[in-house]
Design goal:
With 130 residues, this protein is an all-alpha fold. 60% of the residues lie in helices and 0% in strands. Helix 1 packs antiparallel against helix 5 and helix 4 packs antiparallel against helix 5 (84-102). The longest helix has 24 residues, at 6-29.
């Protein structure tokens, strides 16, 4: 299993923080409902339920919900169709992903829940690993 280390890992975490900040700013600019934001912010984490079917299926479910691809597709389609609600949902989703990356939670390997592209849980909590 390979994981990003050192300065590259720090840059990926900073990018996640930047994505979170950008989504929060846009959400504020479009004057969207903050209660909705709060209620849906952790919704992508429902993908954890995939782990009930085992680590391989759990990793797939988690990675589908925690990749930028689907929320970017949602946002693009919503912008093309001029549909405000899906754009706001995509902003919440992308903000969640940025938050996760900023905290060091990465996409999962099928070996174990703690094994991610940003390292294992043990590596992420070791001072010299960040």
């Amino acid at each position: 299993m390979s994981a990003v280390t050192g300065p590259v890992r720090r840059w990926l975490r900073v990018e996640g923080l930047a994505m979170l900040a950008l989504c929060l700013a846009i959400y504020w600019l479009v004057d969207a409902n903050w209660l909705t934001f709060a209620l849906l912010f952790l919704a992508p984490d429902l993908s954890f339920l995939g782990y009930l079917a085992g680590p391989r299926r759990g990793a797939v479910a988690y990675n589908v919900a925690h990749s930028y691809t689907l929320p970017f597709l949602l946002a693009t389609a919503a912008l093309l169709l001029e549909a405000a609600v899906p754009v706001r949902l995509a902003l919440i989703w992308i903000a969640h992903l940025g938050f996760d990356r900023a905290l060091g939670f990465g996409l999962k390997y099928p070996t174990a829940f703690a094994d991610t592209h940003l390292g294992t849980r043990r590596e992420r909590t070791t001072p010299e690993a960040s």
